[in-house]
Specification:
Bound molecules: 2,5-anhydro-1,6-di-O-phosphono-D-glucitol, manganese (II) ion
Distance between the termini: 56 Å
Radius of gyration: 19 Å
CATH topology of the largest domain: Fructose-1,6-Bisphosphatase, Chain A, domain 1
Largest sheet: 8 strands, mixed
Structural class: alpha+beta
Strand order of the largest sheet: 4-3-5-6-7-8-9-10
CATH class of the largest domain: Alpha Beta
Number of domains: 2
């Protein structure tokens, strides 16, 4: 029975308590709480850290910023010290890092430590994206995730997670604790927001027709260039679609299956939405390499279906 504390309107449910109610293993509760703790250091780095480049590049050939490298180190250290992680892969690491040898009750984690890092210098929102699998295999389909989450560093810091039993949002309070703000988030079947990535003059005919259809329908353009805030908008408002299609010269688009797409696809599907590469659900793709990319259409079910119809006709 919820109770009121003096000065508070209602009892605040913290992340650990909420996780315990999901009836998942203690190790998974611990792991998700450790990631939540790490995010407090990441947001501190984002707020106060060096805005320069690191002088290195990642496996995609992207120039790493000092903040990419620092956020990656914060996350990796915390995962290693959690004691419940076997393999770790990140957008900013060249290969899989083995924290400990295979043993019962361990998890593997794939993450993007600071998605949208190039937006920090113009003070736009960024985020951390995390996928969790049982055991040590990181090259398996996203449907096998046992948990997915992101942390959005915006005017407020929010954490959205699912362990397959609904999608829930927590917001960081003045004590830097994550407390429950929305439970069992669900999406409408369609909506009037569209968030299209990639240069439009590199779109193929089907994508071009789909975007024109959305415009004719009066959909509002909402694209910040940060995957986490852009997805968060579609998910929280429960309406619309985010897409980053195949482009002329980039047949798999830009976004990465392991580090970006799988976690978001899991969250959006569990909120009643859909996520495909234009032909099949993203969560059913068996990745063959760490750096694999895919085109993405993610959001309300009917909007994603419509995109697939336009692609099939083209
Ligand atoms: P990252 O900062 O991790 O390299 O990823 C950036 C991603 C994502 O945040 C966003 O959706 C997309 O790249 C933006 O790409 P464009 O600049 O091509 O719009
Ligand atoms: Mn990058
Ligand atoms: Mn990213
Ligand atoms: Mn990144």
């Amino acid at each position: 029975m919820p109770f009121s504390e003096p000065g508070k309107t209602k009892f605040q449910v913290d992340l650990r308590r909420h996780l315990r109610e999901q009836q998942i293993g203690d190790n998974l509760v611990h792991l998700i709480c450790e990631i939540a703790e790490a995010s407090k250091y990441v947001i501190n780095a984002v707020r106060t850290g060096d805005l320069g480049v690191a002088g290195t590049s990642n496996l995609y050939g992207e120039e790493q910023l000092a903040l990419d490298v620092l956020s990656d180190r914060i996350m990796r250290k915390r995962l290693i010290h959690s004691g419940v992680v076997c393999n770790i892969a990140s957008e900013e690491m060249d290969e899989i890092f083995q924290a400990q040898a295979d043993a019962a009750g361990l998890y593997s984690v794939a993450y993007d430590p600071l998605d949208g890092s190039s937006l920090v210098d113009v003070n736009l929102a960024v985020g951390t994206i995390v996928s969790i699998y049982e055991g040590c295999n990181l090259l398996q389909k996203g449907r096998n995730q046992v948990a997915a989450m992101y942390i959005l560093y915006g005017p407020r810091v929010s954490l959205v997670y699912s362990v397959g039993k609904g999608v829930h949002e927590f917001t960081m309070n003045h004590l830097m604790e994550y407390t429950l703000t929305r439970e069992n988030i669900t999406m409408n079947s369609e909506g009037n927001i569209y968030s299209p990535g990639g240069l439009r003059n590199k779109y193929n005919a089907g994508d071009e027709k789909f975007v024109r259809y959305l415009e004719d329908r009066g959909a509002k353009l909402r694209y910040s260039g940060g995957f986490v805030p852009d997805i968060n908008q579609v998910l929280m408002k429960g309406k619309g679609i985010f897409m980053y299609p195949a482009l002329n010269g980039s047949p798999n688009g830009k976004l990465r299956i392991l580090f970006e797409l799988n976690a978001m696809a899991y969250l959006v599907e569990h909120a009643g939405g859909a996520a495909t590469n234009g032909r099949q659900p993203l969560l059913d793709i068996e990745p063959v390499s760490l750096d694999q990319r895919a085109p993405v259409y993610i959001g309300c079910k009917n909007d994603v279906k419509k995109a697939m119809e336009f692609l099939a006709e083209a």
